[in-house]
Structure formats: C-alpha cells, structure tokens
Write a structure and sequence with these properties.
Length: 117
C-alpha cells in the first residue's frame, strides 16, 4: 500500500514537490487553502483520508498524548537547519527507510536521530 501524506502548512512547497517526485501521494494544507486550521482539524483530515502528517509543529506531540486520540501517523521534523533543501536531503531517505513503520506511529526526526514513539 502506498503511503499517503498530508503536509502541514509549515512545510515548504519545495519539500511537497520533492515528496511527490519521489512517488508519494501528498495533500498539502496550503494548496487546499486550509490556512489557519487548528492542529486538531489537520489531524481529523489526516485520519479521514488515512494520511500521515508531515509537520514542523511540535504541538502535535502534545495532541497524541491523549490516549483516546487516534492518528494515521505523524512525522515531526525538527532539524536544527529547517531549510527546505536540508529537510529534503534528510527527510526523504528516512521516509524511504522507515516507510513500513511510519503508519499509525509518531516519528520524531532530528539531526542525528529518528525515533518512533
């Protein structure tokens, strides 16, 4: 099954495009003109469409601490260099490597670490 992604509005367009070029089915909050929707609404949309959220927003970690909160997967990107080029260069290989483990998991990626929580 192909991994479907939902990119939060803080994910650069160039990252979205790179994900698509790599073969991912990506829905982007900005392209859908859903600017300013709450994290809960982003989570609800992702759940409805069975998509893994890609975000820089660490508030998503707080959302999933609720034991009743369901999600299809969240990738929290927290590199010290959050430029689109760096995110593309580091995130894409990690997604490929961990693709089978991301679904329904919380993945924290940082400079020298990728941890599934």
């Amino acid at each position: 099954m192909k991994l479907k992604l939902l990119t939060d509005e803080n994910i650069a367009k160039s990252v979205v495009n790179a994900l698509r070029r790599t073969g991912y089915d990506v829905k982007d909050v900005k392209e859908e003109k859903l600017f300013g929707i709450s994290d809960e609404e982003v989570l609800e949309l992702a759940n409805k469409e069975n998509r893994v959220i890609i975000t820089h927003d660490k508030d998503f970690a707080n959302l999933i601490n609720n034991p009743n909160q369901k999600h299809s997967g969240i990738v929290l990107v927290r590199f010290s260099d959050q430029t689109p080029e760096n995110v593309i260069n580091k995130l894409l290989p990690l997604l490929k490597k961990l693709r089978d483990k991301i679904k329904n998991a919380f993945l924290l990626v940082a400079d020298d670490m990728a941890r599934i929580i």
